[in-house]
């Protein structure tokens, strides 16, 4: 079982284990050693988000990589999917991103992509973990103040922007007005130039990072922010990214939030109409709403579910040969275009569908009837198997018995935070909330931090 890697890399409070300088240095050495079969002196491409800790973490990780015999190049502040793209395009041995995605500024993380642009398989992460722990038996903490991150090569950002535009040939926004919430994160470094090349009128918000304002009441974690601004501006559409811009959520002209389920419905219909939806199948996760499943079924499109985490969605897609998948949270996978979820790419795809259809966003997904859903997050001190706790198992069983096919119960731990997530979906909002509170209460009593 992995101890350091969660569903999206290593993530913690910056400066505290496992993101203390000594462990970060060990991660660099271990990763370099694991890459040695790829090349005698493997080259790694590095990118980061806008957190104030990203620079020293990048410098420390680079020192470890160099110690392990690797060479490092930097794309500077750039999105996570950009690093995946660059790793694949240039044949780097690996791509590494310093980011904690949607987490608050004081957190940070390390995400690793293989040279093929895909996130590492669980078994590969486990091998790297084993090597990290071996390194920790002997390495000493480096003097961080004396370290420097590698010089940034600005051309990498331009290459990525060119790739994005080439993915939606002919897209021009014309008279469209859009609001872009960059979450004071990595999208802030790309969105202004990218959307200037598309025409239209882009209203940029939360695009002035100061190291501590990333995701602060903005971005994909707070989609109502961009929804309110979209309506106030009289804009046609709003887009909001998370800290590393590997996902995007939207707002329609009426100020309604459109999450990943809405994007999957819109994209599935467009791909099917153009004969590009392989197997007439979409892969979502256990968190996607039953309303999406029903809307897709009306268009003779099957929906399969995978565990939460875009890497697991991708695995299921590859197993069944699907050409579209994603998460309600806004990670959308277009494998014919990219190897990982990409918020900027998703935004361009949605804008392209809207432009070609001649219809506003709310019309394109107007028949998506969302079942009432509640998600409660419970902070926990440890992650014991929930069904082994009698009071929790009893509360879950009671909910499943009463809902009896007219709702869903999904209880899971976050892969990146010390949280248990309680999700219930039901036709009856009263029953939904009652059972969610009961299950969350039982977890809080037994495991609450």
From TrEMBL:
Post-translational modification: Activated by phosphorylation.
A Pfam entry, by short name: PGM_PMM_IV
This enzyme's EC code(s): 5.4.2.10
Keywords: Isomerase, Magnesium, Metal-binding, Phosphoprotein
Free-text cofactor note: Binds 1 Mg(2+) ion per subunit.
Cofactor annotation: Mg(2+)
Enzyme class: isomerase
Catalytic residues of the enzyme: 101
Alpha-D-phosphohexomutase alpha/beta/alpha domain mapped to chain residues: 2-135, 159-255, 259-367
Domain Alpha-D-phosphohexomutase C-terminal, residue spans: 376-441
Gene Ontology biological process terms from the UniProt entry: carbohydrate metabolic process; peptidoglycan biosynthetic process; UDP-N-acetylglucosamine biosynthetic process
Residues binding Mg(2+), per UniProt: 101, 242, 244, 246
InterPro entries: A-D-PHexomutase_a/b/a-I, A-D-PHexomutase_a/b/a-I/II/III, A-D-PHexomutase_a/b/a-II, A-D-PHexomutase_a/b/a-III, A-D-PHexomutase_C, A-D-PHexomutase_C_sf, A-D-PHexomutase_CS, Alpha-D-phosphohexomutase_SF
PROSITE patterns associated with the record: PGM_PMM (PS00710)
Reaction equations catalysed: alpha-D-glucosamine 1-phosphate = D-glucosamine 6-phosphate
Modification type Phosphoserine: residues: 101
A GO CC term assigned to this protein in UniProt: cytosol
One term of GO molecular function: magnesium ion binding
NCBIfam families given in the database record: glmM (TIGR01455)
Similarity comment text for this entry: Belongs to the phosphohexose mutase family.
Function (record text): Catalyzes the conversion of glucosamine-6-phosphate to glucosamine-1-phosphate.
Listed name of the protein: Phosphoglucosamine mutase
Natural source organism: Silvibacterium dinghuense
